[in-house]
Design a protein that fits this description.
It is found in: Nucleus. Strands 2, 3, 4, 5, 6, 7 and 8 form a seven-stranded mixed beta sheet that branches. The two termini are 40 Å apart. 18% of the residues lie in helices and 35% in strands. The protein is of the alpha+beta class.
């Protein structure tokens, strides 16, 4: 049913990267901080955000949302922080304005001043701990381009789906029900807390079973076989997918201290039971009236093809 929301509101679309989410607080020179999913705060040294109107001054009282990704650049791993939303700018709350205006604020007030300062020699990119870029969004009519092989091959990091963001909506803290995520069916996963339990009983050979828990539910959401890989994963957060009707672990989520919520898990299960593949998604968008087919020049090239920090 979520896909029908694309008919009710105007949406923008971007690629979904396999990155780590951080909020960034910019509060003056040498006062830049990351806040992770567990609300742990740590300082980021060597990063500069000059003001647009006076690049000798530093931005303050600004809070943005984004993700850290690892780009591949000529065989090297290059960390970059992609800003995709803004909550507060220079002490002024901007989370209530529409998404398009928030994107404009990021571009004009954060990204472009940094770019200009680099050209002037005020910022030396090689001395910074990582790059900073604005994550690009496009009209939902361009979804077919983001799903093309050409786009995927031009990106410097792995893609694992799409994000659809309502154009007119404010920034919403917590779960935003109208922000839609799409993944190819084989990439649909749930983050569980694993509890390894010894199941036994009359006439039953004792065995270890993995009980998989989600947030907001005291009973196990699912179970899985315990193999050698899982034996040391008790009480860990693990990302799992369904293969041949069974849950299997893909990786430990060391960046998370809590599993997905029950609501999120149910949403993923719906996607697993009733998958929306690439062709269905594109046909739905086209048949819903997104028939504009812009030229290639209207789709900005991905970050590695732009003269960007």
């Amino acid at each position: 049913d979520n896909i029908k929301k694309l008919q009710k509101k105007e949406y923008m679309v971007s690629w979904k990267a396999d990155g780590t989410r951080y909020m960034m607080l910019i509060d003056g020179e040498n006062e830049v901080y990351f806040i992770d999913r567990d609300n742990c705060v740590f300082q980021v040294s060597g990063l500069c955000f000059p003001k647009r109107k006076d690049r000798s001054q530093h931005i303050q009282e600004t809070l943005v949302d984004g993700e850290m990704i690892i780009d591949k650049d000529n065989g090297r791993d290059v960390p970059r922080y992609l800003i995709y939303d803004i909550i507060r700018f220079q002490g002024e709350e901007v989370m209530g304005v529409d998404f398009c205006r928030r994107l404009t604020c990021i571009s004009h007030e954060l990204y472009e001043p940094r770019k200009a300062a680099m050209q002037e020699g005020r910022i030396k990119r090689e001395s910074e701990p990582f790059g900073v870029r604005q994550k690009q969004f496009w009209d939902a009519s361009l979804t077919y381009k983001l799903l093309s092989d050409k786009f995927a091959q031009s990106m410097p990091h792995e893609l694992d789906g799409l994000i659809f963001q309502p154009k007119a909506d404010p920034y919403i803290c917590g779960r935003a029900m109208d922000v839609l995520k799409w993944k190819p069916p084989h990439l649909n996963t749930i983050d569980f807390r694993l509890k390894i339990i010894k199941e036994t009983g009359p006439g039953i050979v004792p065995k270890l079973v993995g009980h998989l828990f989600v947030g907001g539910c005291d009973l196990p959401y699912a179970k899985m076989k315990v193999n050698k890989q899982l034996r040391n994963m008790d009480n860990k957060i693990i990302e799992c997918r369904v293969e041949s009707g069974n849950w299997v672990m893909l990786r430990e989520r060391t960046d998370k201290s809590f599993p997905n919520s029950y609501i999120t898990a149910d949403g993923v299960m719906e996607s697993i039971k009733y998958p929306v593949d690439k062709d269905y998604l594109l046909h739905f968008i086209h048949d819903s009236g997104f028939r504009k087919r812009p030229t290639d020049s209207e789709l900005m090239p991905p970050p590695n093809q732009r003269a960007a920090p």
